[in-house]
Amino acid sequence: MEAEWVDYLRKTLPPPPPSVLLALGDDAAVLAPSAFGTVVTVDLLTEGVDFLLDEHDPSLIGRKALAVNLSDLAAMGAMPTAVVVAVALPRSGPYPPAVLAKLLYEGMQPLLDRYSLSLIGGDTNTWDGGLVVSVTALGMTTKNGVLTRAGARAGDRILITGPLGGSRLERQFTFEPRIREILLLHEHYECHAAIDISDSFSLDLYRLCRESSLGAEVVFSRIPIHPDAFRWAKTCGETCGETLSAVEHALSDGEDFELILAVSPDSATQILREQPLFAAFDCLLYDVGSFLEEPGLWMMDEDGNRHVLHPRGYTH
Questions:
Q1: Do residue 161 and residue 107 come from a single domain?
Q2: Across the chain, what does the average pLDDT equal?
Q3: How far does CA 278 lie from the centroid of its chain?
Q4: Do 248 and 164 share a structural domain?
Q5: Comparing 38 with 6, which gets the higher pLDDT?
Q6: pLDDT digits (tens, 9 = 90+) for 96-108
Q7: pTM across the whole model
Q8: How many CB atoms lie within 10 A of CB 15?
Q9: I need a labelling partner for 45 at 20 to 30 A (CA). Which of 28, 83, 172, 293 fits?
Q10: How many domains does one find in the chain?
């Protein structure tokens, strides 16, 4: 099957850009060196953990497998250039292996086109287990340098790129990686650090703080709550007796894939005034708090009292 699949991709994919010296068909791909730096990330999606093949459209699974990697590149302030895809296809199940492979690819195709990405290689196998999709994405840093989790400074504002919570209502499959948004922000404003919200806002904010050796204070009234969080809280309450509120889902649900940014106070003020991403990308930025010299995560309530914010979310 693999030879036929490679032939199909070579006929379907557009010609690679000049940065790809050798793409599909050989033992490995060859890339030209980047002028600044190369960024590499990989994510593994596994049936039964990240999706259910009996319930989720394979094209959405393929899309998500690529999108989560692009979100990682966005968090680094990197421009995506190429991807490598490896899949283990179940021999039995709702889809024949060749059909499933094509559906996964069709789900990736719009993102490949949107970001001018080259699919330069990978591997395909069939087995008696569930579907496994592994995508490795490559990107290049820009003249503005790379963003990391370790660059936040005390006094920086905590900005996020969208409302949170309720991603389980399919938004985990349809979110848009914030690639174009971060490239614009990193070009024109003083951004010091970033992380994407994969496991939850509170947990990923904690991780950023830990790497930057800082604490953070979040203002309760500023947390942007996605309408899906209200719907998900209602659904969970009715079906399994869960009593989490919408704001608790916003703080602890995973897979929002928005970005948490550490931005200088002056730049944050300018960003909030100009909202530079709204017209082009329909993306509003929210200031939800600040980074502190003192360690710990804190929540400021509506009366101005501070409470410990416990990092909760998905742990691997």
A1: no
A2: 94
A3: 19
A4: yes
A5: 38
A6: 999 999 999 999 9
A7: 0.93
A8: 8
A9: 28
A10: 2
d(CA 41, CA 153): 25
Predicted pLDDT at 238: 63
DSSP 170: T
Weakest-pLDDT range from 21-25, 65-69, 201-205, 237-241: 237-241
From the number of C-beta atoms within 10 Å of its C-beta (0-12, 13-18, 19+), residue 184 rates as: middle
Token readout for 274 is: 């100009």
- For the chain, what percentages of helix, strand and coil (3-state, to nearest 5) are there? 35, 25, 40
How far apart CA 243 and CA 166 sit, in angstroms, is 14
d(CA 237, CA 168): 15
C-alpha span between 130 and 283 (Å, rounded): 36
Fill in the amino acid letter for 78: A
Assess if residue 150 is contained within a domain. Answer: no
Which two structure tokens, joined as six digits, stand for 139?
A: 């990107």
